[in-house]
Design a protein that fits this description.
alpha/beta, Trypsin Inhibitor V, Chain A, Prot_inh_I78
């Protein structure tokens, strides 16, 4: 009985490690795509878009969260949700490997991405 529990536990750990590694690679790919780009969380936030453009930010550096979520590659990579984390924002410590967490700086620019 103890050997069976050890085998099951070992298999679960191996499966988890494999899944974690896969999502880590996918997250790194998305980080290369989004790092230093500006994220707008609401499609109705036209003022924020105008502010960025008038301050000299190129339009291709500005991305809507909805555009990331609707990107076929996002779903193909196994992601199901996005959480945008602004500086000093309280967040829950729950663990969702299929959630892409996007860290922003004070200007709304992507500083890092991780899953979990």
């Amino acid at each position: 009985m103890a050997d069976q529990k050890t085998d099951t536990s070992s298999k679960l750990q191996t499966d988890y490690d494999k899944l974690f590694h896969e999502f880590k690679e996918k997250t790194e790919k998305w980080q290369k795509k989004l790092l230093n780009k500006y994220i707008i969380t609401e499609s109705c936030d036209k003022n924020r878009h105008s502010e960025l453009v008038s301050s000299g930010v190129n339009k291709d550096q500005i991305i809507l969260v909805a555009d990331i979520a609707s990107d076929p590659e996002f779903k193909a990579d196994g992601f199901e949700r996005i959480r945008v984390i602004k500086p000093m924002m309280p967040i829950t410590m729950d663990y969702w490997i299929t959630r892409m967490n996007i860290n922003l700086d004070d200007q709304g620019r992507v500083t890092g991405i991780y899953s979990a």
